[in-house]
Amino acid sequence: MTLKFDVLTPMIGARVHLDRTTLRNPATARELLQLLERHTVLVFPRLNLSDEEQLALTGALGGNVNIAARIAGRENAEAVYQVSLNEGVRIEKEYVLGTFFWHMDGLTVDIPPPKATVLTARHLAAAGGQTEFASTKAAYAALPAEEKAGLEGLRVVHTVTAALREIMHPEDVDAARRALRHEHPLVWARADGTKSLVIGATADLITGKSQAESRAILSRLLEWTVQPAFTYRHSWALGDCVVWDNTCALHRVIPYATDSGRMMHRTAIAGTEPVT
Ligand SMILES: [Fe+2]
Questions:
Q1: What tens digit of pLDDT does each residue of 244-258 get?
Q2: Spacing, Cα 12 to ligand 1 middle (Å)
Q3: What backbone torsions phi and psi does residue 167 show, to the nearest 5 degrees?
Q4: How far is residue 104's CA from residue 188's CA, in Å, rounded to a whole number?
């Protein structure tokens, strides 16, 4: 390992000192992927990537996937997605407000979930706007054995409507988004041999269980996963870049004002395995 890094917490997070001239270097990409597998969240302080450089980094780590373009009518969505509540940036405020709640990206579209998400801070909120991450891999590993056994074979329907339940009435969700739903195993047996929980705001119902039973199990697992031992909160500096493994982490943003000007540029690294 030639990259210099500091471990941020025992379970999740490392700060990596990356020379931006090495972004396209395959040896650097290999080391970054090793660090991502080990630490789940990689923080690159004040890297100040341009969109072109962010796309190059995303490409070097496995290729870009444009998840916003998977929604009917949004096929031409830009390659670098602007996460912002600024007036005039987009009309999808509810979708961005949905990021205030713990979730994984890309669970409701019919492609493998993105392997990782890449975010660069372009404008900060004066208050709020920190991003929190929770390791669903560490959380699963620490569950009591009998509870793990009880989760075997369970499947969960993930919907955009569920993800927006705190923000709007289901009937107000537009038809294209209401159509987005996908069923996944509750426990993801990942290719690297570890297991992670597939939970968060999009998790609606456990197949074959009542709403009450579903909510009880899903709420319990969410509370378990977001306890401090499995989480890292990133307080952004301008130009920071963070890459996190979307196959074994939840994330959310601490609420910020709609007129804060906060602007993040997001890209996603293509998923390599469906949830199995
Ligand atoms: Fe997200």
A1: 999 999 999 999 998
A2: 17
A3: -110, -35
A4: 13
Q: How far is the CA of 80 from the centre of ligand 1 (A)?
A: 14
Distance 251 CA to ligand 1 centre (A): 6
Lowest-pLDDT range, 7-21, 69-83, 154-168?
69-83
- In the chain, at which residue ranges do the beta strands (DSSP E only) sit? 4-7, 14-17, 41-44, 81-84, 116-123, 131-135, 155-159, 181-185, 187-189, 195-197, 203-206, 231-234, 241-245, 249-253, 263-269
Give 143's contacts (C-beta < 8 A, 6+ positions apart).
151, 224
Contact 232, 130 (CB under 8 A): no
Contacts of 21 (CB under 8 A, 6+ apart): none
Q: Is 181 helix (H, G, I), strand (E, B) or coil?
A: strand
Place of tokens 């080990």: 38
- Rounded to the nearest angstrom, the distance between the alpha carbon of 146 and the centre of ligand 1 is 31
Please name each of the domains of the chain with its CATH number: 4-269 (3.60.130.10)
